[in-house]
Model the fold of this input.
Amino acid sequence: MAIEWAGSTPELLLALDRDATGTLRSQLETALRDAICTGRLKAGERLPSSRELARQLGVSRGLVQECYGQLNAEGYLCARTGSATRVASVRAVDDEPAPGAPPDASRLRVDFAAGVPDLASFPRGDWSWAQREVARTVRNEALGYGDPRGSEVLRGVLAGHLRRVRAAVAEADDIVVCGGFAQGLGIVLHVLARRGVRRVAFEDPGYGDGATMAAADRAGIEAVPVPVDDLGLDVDALDASGARAVVVTPAHQWPTGVVLAPERRRALADWACERDGVVVEDDYDAEFRYDREPVGSVQGLAPGRVLGLGTVSKSLAPGVRLGWILCPPALTRAVAEEKRLADRGSPVLDQLALAALIESGRYGRHLRRMRPLYAGRRAALVAALAEHAPAVRLTGLAAGFHAVAHLPGGTDERRVVAEARRRSVGLYGMSTYRASGAAEPPRLVLGFGDLTETAIRDGIGKVADLLRS
Done:
């Protein structure tokens, strides 16, 4: 007869078979040792007390203590008097990297990943203040399921913010709060699919993680690439693509960093009106501009044809998981219904905390504090490349916290990326953002938002010879 125990910390299933030839102690030792070696029990996880495990398994406490003592002696467990028994650091069987394999991202000393803000600068004190204020003042009825569009308070605050800061045509009734860009885009694409849109255009180069294209596939819409040049999206190519919807990043194109030129902005608005098209505007990091005031949103030019997607993932942190969809009035009800079916609405307390942060002026103060910080890191990147690899040209520096490094002709972009990782430096090639996957011309997308100036200088120094090649 087998005795099984399912523990809550850690989650683990152990089995002792009293009819087996081995002793119960050897069975328990083997089960725990295997769980540690295969990674089912991770380093630092707490095991049940000997008394509790003995009770659950129906064995003596002494048997469990002997088992724990043996595994402690072998180095699988660690225990101190008065403290819980925990799993020691033991390399899993398949955890040994292959010879010559590059380190994974968690082991990188310097990671130039793009799209990541300075996580250490998240305004913890202001956010805690906002949460306390909300918990103290929130009305009981606000804690129900409520409007699927989101908190009326936050929608009102966002509408005012978008009108003032992004020159958008925004009313609270036409904003739907969502869980970030990915959810917002998925909702929009499903709504467009039900309205007969069968083809959506994406900028090329553009989103390289595959998730955005997969969102179109899940909605049953064909995704087609449309080229981007030094003036932004090629609207003539968009017109020729046969798409009835397009996803664009006009304020700071992802990942090239170019700004959609004024004549292209007008042409895009005209295309939407003349072709019965829809523009999905991803306004992902327009708050951080260094050469002049941020450009206004395209939504302000054609509010009946543009769905504006915004988040606080870059201004605060991705982990906040809050964003919004600014809808044309004709699509608001459909977008809100899609959101209702998805999850009944985003967490209301977090919505109210964000509203309090914006209304109090603390959100604006945070942005003003971050702009010079990112500008300093931007300057450090420019200076480091000028010193170590002066032949590398940087573009896309007008806004945000990533830039594009143009490597010398003939450079093997993929070799540079792979060799840099062997040196524990994360570099990212433009090829991953191109629809074709082509590595020519060789370019790197360098993020500096979550790196200190010292780390930027050190990282560039470590790979300088690769960049000069």
